[in-house]
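Problem: given the chain below (537 residues), write out its structure.
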Amino acid sequence: MIAQPQAEIPTVRVDEIPTSPSASKARVVALAVFLLAGLAAAVFFWLPSAFTRFLESHAEIAILFQGSHVSSSLMLVFQLCGLLAVLCALAGGAAMVRNRLTYQALRVPIFAVYALVTAYLWLTWQACGSVHDRGLAIHGAKLDKVTMLYLWWSLAWPALAIALYAAWTHVMLRSRSVYAAFTQEHGAPMGGDHVLEDLRTHGRDPRHRRSVYLSVFTHLFFLCVIPYLLSLGGCVEAYKVPQGSGNPVVAMVKMVKPKKKKKQTLSLRPNSAILFEIPDLDDTKVDQQMEEQTQATYQASNAKAGKMGKGGGTKGGWPEGMDDYKIRFIRLEHSGGGWDDGMDETGADLNFLRAFAEATGFKKIASKGESHSIALLKKYPKDGFPPFVFLTGNADMGNVSEADRKILRDYCLNGGMLIADAGSARFHQSFMHFMRQVFPDKPMVDIADDEMIYQLPYSFPDGAPAFWHHGGRRPLGVKHEGRWVAFYHPGDMNDAWKSQGYTDVTPEMREAAMNLGINLVYYAFTQWNDAVSKAKK
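Solution.
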């Protein structure tokens, strides 16, 4: 077999490329002004705002940055970014005057961009290294070297994109057509011409060059695109409520108040100059009455409540539900501690699902609790969003981005319900501040004892039991158009759902907590049904 000679790939020499600088002067100058104006906007607006959004979603790093030398150095870099933006704008305006001086001036802001980007990348690398060295956890997980690299990349890619933009502008300015437009000199090809021609013809070995391009593209895809797709959290499974028609049966909950032992008191002479015991300022009659209610033991009767739903039928269920339903318990994640308290061996989520199935007759429940970020709430379909989501914690919630706050607000106003409780007094303060940000126009108000949320399927004549009083003794809520869109229990209802051995609650109080949760879920399912029905009209 005779081998066919391989055709020689024609190449074009750079110095043979014709140029007509006189015809392209206006376009070249306009291009230089446009590129420098875009560079000024990117440096001044994009880089600082991207870094600010990063800190809002990573509360742990934001705390680390406060008062550190890295933070002060980055603030200096951002201030220099403002000066650099002005410099870029002035250089772009100077490009309207075509002479050798302005041509040299156009290169100054580009080199300044290189310097600032280098400083920014080095400082962010130092910050990520500090997080790794201190063993801090990001969203509940400690960093290893790989995750630290991904963390740094999320900070670095805006700066690298700006540096790439500046490099392309640099290449354009170093072409002989641009040089001739400013200096009126038509010399040999410059560095920019060689780069552009090399990109156009793929060099002396186009096949090798294409393989290099493919390799670079593949690496960038796995380093940039895949992490971005993972950060979106993927798809969500539509929530399926039991279909049918029901009419809940009220099961009364009785209260048995234990007899309070009379405290022994010590009487002193009225004229005594010595005060042996400082009185408790909180030991008032009102506080004593609330304490007596707190110590009450709740007993729930075993009355049937298995036909829960809406529509007046006997099967149970909701008209807008699905036959292949599954009752799920979804928690919202946040950067503070304790958001997953009850998802481990303590079994709070699963215990509640089992109690719900036993009390209502809806046996198709999830095998375990689940969780996801607030951002994923916007991915649910309009007829398959979760009727309720649960939120708890035992520390500060951390910084929740404005975008996530808006997503949670839209979820609640469009038919969903937030059920939250406090695992500590610290979380209570953080959550109340968080709710003021989510609903600035809707205050948290006391939920009256005669609200429907306390009536079906179990009755709580005196409202919800108080439990541990981490944030008070009365549940609070947010109401919108006559519907409770948020229910907040300040006494750690979640802790009462845990398995025996992981909580010190009595069996009667545990049952009351389960029944209260069932009431909340029934209320959320009913409101979900109304919202879906309204959306279909």
